[in-house]
């Protein structure tokens, strides 16, 4: 595939893709904020993990994920460097905000052709970089939906999923 074909077939720019992801991250942040402190770390439905654990999984994909995209170096999932599990909502939101800034800072280093390169992320998921990014986003949406179920079970209205501002 030539660069000319890639360019003429562009539907979304890299910056638009980052904004799309960051929009989902803003909704997920509001989801974290909506939880009462205790329930964020303890409440679950049907044997699913508490939302704090799900949010930490999202962090543990996105944080080393952006590093892998930039460097081409991927450690197996679960073996990559992760932070210890936060014990408070404030600490979880701090991690979330750190990753938001890191994504904004590192994203411009991704060359447009990199999005079409194939890699084996975390020793498990093979695909183009754009596929892997969509996987990260889809995983976040999936787990955020679990958080919405938890909030509704707690009698709390979740944030509007369409408001990504």
From TrEMBL:
Q: Does the keyword Metal-binding apply?
A: yes
Q: Which domain of life is it from?
A: Bacteria
Record's InterPro entries? DinB (IPR007837), DinB/YfiT-like (IPR034660)
| Any one Gene Ontology molecular-function term assigned to this protein's record | metal ion binding
Q: Which UniProt keywords apply?
A: Metal-binding
Give me the residues that bind a divalent metal cation, please.
Answer: 143
Q: Which family does it belong to?
A: Belongs to the DinB family.
Q: What is this protein called?
A: Putative damage-inducible protein DinB
Q: Which organism is it from?
A: Chitinophaga ginsengisoli
Where is the organism placed in the taxonomic lineage, from the top?
Answer: Bacteria, Pseudomonadati, Bacteroidota, Chitinophagia, Chitinophagales
């Amino acid at each position: 595939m030539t660069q000319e074909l890639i360019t003429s077939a562009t539907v979304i720019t890299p910056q638009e893709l980052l904004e799309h992801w960051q929009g989902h991250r803003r909704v997920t942040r509001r989801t974290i904020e909506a939880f009462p402190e205790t329930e964020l770390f303890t409440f679950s439905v049907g044997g699913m993990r508490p939302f704090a654990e799900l949010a930490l999984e999202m962090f543990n994909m996105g944080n080393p994920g952006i590093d892998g995209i930039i460097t081409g170096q991927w450690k197996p999932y679960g073996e990559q460097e992760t932070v210890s599990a936060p014990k408070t909502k404030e600490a979880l939101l701090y991690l979330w905000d750190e990753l938001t800034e890191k994504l904004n800072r590192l994203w411009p280093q991704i060359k447009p052709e990199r999005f079409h390169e194939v890699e084996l992320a975390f020793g498990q998921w093979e695909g183009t970089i754009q596929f892997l990014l969509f996987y990260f986003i889809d995983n976040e949406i999936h787990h955020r939906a679990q958080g919405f179920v938890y909030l509704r079970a707690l009698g709390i209205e979740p944030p509007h999923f369409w408001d990504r501002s």
